[in-house]
Amino acid sequence: MEGFGRVPYGYLRWVTGLALVLFLSTMTAGCMGSGSSDAADVPLLPVVPLDLTLAPEDLAELYARDPTSNDRLPAVARFGDDSPPADVNMRFRGSSTRFLPKKSFNIRFDGEQDLLFGSERMNANAMYTDPSMMREHLTWGMFAQLERPASRTRYLDLSINGVYEGLYLHIERVDQDLLRNAGLNPSGTLVRDQFRDLRGVDPRVDATSAFGFPWSTIPESERASLLADAFNSRGSPSWSDLEQLLLWVEQAAPGPAFAAAFRERFDTDVFIDWLAIHFLIGDIDSFGDDYWLYLDHEREDARWVVIPWDHDLSFGSHTRADYGIANDFFAYEYPLADTWGNRLVQLFLNTPELRETLDARMRDLMRNAFTESWFERQIEAAWAEIGPSVLRAPGAPGPSPAFEVHPQNHHSVQGVPELHLELLRDFVALRYAFIERKISPPIDGERYQASRQILGTVRAGEPLVFTDRAGFTIARLDPVDTIEAWGKIDVEVRPDPAQDGVDRAWTLRSTVPEFEAQLTLYYRNELPPNLENWYTGGFVPLGRQWELVMARRYGASVEPIPGSRVNPFSNKVSAAITVQPELAQEFAVVLSQD
User: Fold this and answer.
1) How far apart are the C-alpha atoms of 504 and 590, rounded to whole Å?
2) Which is one Pfam family of this protein (predicted)?
3) Cα–Cα distance between 80 and 78 in angstroms, integer?
4) Label partner for 94 (CA 20 to 30 A): which of 30, 357, 391, 487?
């Protein structure tokens, strides 16, 4: 693909689903979580074929007209050859995703569909920005495991007029059916904050969230109409209850009084889990308009419930705005305080007793529910089901042609799923280390320096992660055998402008008796204004990162380590080494000369 540089043949081999499942199984031993205390596995429904038939002129119009058009076009849908045809109408869905090459769809059926959880509405997400094609599935599964009100999902294999056009994920619509299925009163208030859509449309509006707007400055006679414009709604909501909530948030201040009033108004456990999961997965745009609010206004003791929505920009899939959403850069250091102007969330985070409860909940979820081993199992199970669909490429052999109106399943390099799935696992591990550092910041320490105390036993497969004071993981050691020792291991990164590849040098010092380990070095690959691009190949996505190898550094010379392995999506290089005591070992990441 253009812009990716030279890709070695070994990375572009055709990987079967079974082969990758075996690969994933071998990696499980390297995870930190304990399977005995993990959450239950995410229910995974079989991939369902969805065949759409449109008149040729309607199909041409759909892809030629303004992508923002909401005019619906007629079509016929079938869930495979054995299902009866159904008349539907359809359009594109999403906001920024409408402008991506692979389109997402909103499809309406004439009646309820069992395969859509009893709904007549289908939200088919293209997942074009997600090479793993399971980020959204995993996120929704996390809410399901905590038994929080949230959408269910199922995968679809989409064909349009007999041509395979990609793997999709249906996201259950948030409506009265979802409320009923969640055991909630379907007649309650159900609204979605879409206030930022009014910016530039309504001269009174200069806010990204309804919870960041001064409602008290709007005459009482005008508030109802502005509320109706600012919120999407289902059924017959109680606008007065919503107005009272917004006015309370506008006038509140953080502290014990806010904490007590918050608990009176909100289902606090549901709200905390909503915040916690979004922080765990780095879905930082969710506090702007990607949520619904529910209140059973027919009950005097009812409390507001927050219901999640839209997780396409999670697990690091929204890292570089300069290149658009669909890109291969990797980052995980999203702050635990970015609220998109949502004052309700700001007040919560600035109230110590609520923030402490949230931090404790995040720790609990990371250590005892959604552990790395939990994610490993979900990834393995999902890939076994969707792998053949993800690997379907334009022009590949199959029962029908593939990809005519869409270019391919996802934006990135095709045929390297083992690296894309490793990227997903890496995000979890590095994000968790970042969150732990932010919850318990170090007393002192320099940027790009980290230490680990060895206090007796380090089991084989239990990684030693070196995270600096800012939360950036600079290195990781995976011991081959169990270590029985006491001591300390330090890792330091410093500039090394002479290197062709990554212009840094890593120094490892240890007081622990000699042991064998897999060493992984992480480097930065950033864009302005950060200007911390350690990779000297410039700002081209991936570029020559495919050619990076780990090397030992001896003064001004370097010696590549045989068998080192790069994952340019994760910005990391790994190699087998011997950690030696009382010896400063220096490493570099350089471009291969082969």
Assistant:
1) 10
2) CotH
3) 6
4) 391
Distance, CA of 593 to CA of 504 (rounded, Å): 18
DSSP 556-574: TEEEEPTT-EEETTTTEEE
C-beta separation of 186 from 170 below 8 A: no
Question: With the C-alpha atoms ordered 16, 372, 181, 314, is the resulting torsion angle positive or negative?
Answer: negative
pLDDT digits (tens, 9 = 90+) for 43-65: 789 999 999 999 999 999 999 99
233: which 2 tokens?
């709604």
pLDDT per residue as tens digits for the range 206-251 = 888 899 999 999 999 999 999 999 999 999 999 999 999 999 999 9
- Supply φ then ψ for residue 93, to 5 degrees: -135, 165
Domain positions in the chain are: 442-591
User: Residue 68 has which token pair?
Assistant: 């923002």
Rounded Cα distance, 411 and 409, in Å: 7
Cβ pair 31, 376 in contact under 8 A: yes
Cis ω before 256 (30° cut-off from 0): no
Torsion, Cα 384 388 393 395, to 10 degrees, reads 170
